[in-house]
Amino acid sequence: xxxxxxxxxxxxxxxxxxxxxxxxxxxxxxxxxxxxxxxxxxxxxxxxxxxxxxxxxxxxxxxxxxxxxxxxxxxxxxxxxxxxxxxxxxxxxxxxxxxxxxxxxxxxxxxxxxxxxxxxxxxxxxxxxxxxxxxxxxxxxxxxxxxxxxxxxxxxxxxxxxxxxxxxxxxxxxxxxxx
Length: 179
What we know:
There is one protein chain. The chain has helices spanning 36-53, 72-86, 142-146, 154-161; strands at 5-9, 12-22, 24-25, 32-33, 57-65, 92-97, 107-117. By secondary structure, it is an alpha/beta fold. Helix 1 (36-53) crosses helix 2 and helix 1 (36-53) packs parallel to helix 4 (154-161). It is globular, with a radius of gyration of 17 Å. It starts with a strand and ends in an 18-residue tail after the last helix.
């Protein structure tokens, strides 16, 4: 199963992937307390890895900020970190901040828009001849901050996805039931 939308456009697909977080950040009522650059970095990771896994080249990032307008630059810096790790410094960042209403908890959405040539994704079926590898560990909440060595580096993920013999890459976000 893949998380994303592929919209046909001439000889390409527009590929749209996303991730969101709520109750994670720096506000008093947040369940998990982390700096906003950490929050946006991990949300970007998920959306970018899903985009790459679909065979796309990410072009732009859309940030939906419900943490407060004054936190925009901190959120952007987390995405910038992810861009550097992927070697995708050309990615543009746009978005919006909710500044009319103050929320009690932090919330964030990240959308990655990419493109890929119009060719079919290979059909992958599990059989006795297929080999697979698991890189990293599915983590939720504080585990993400407490177990950084269990997280696959973004540059490794990109490298694996670009290998000719690799038939499919399936990133896993924070849902344990997707493993």
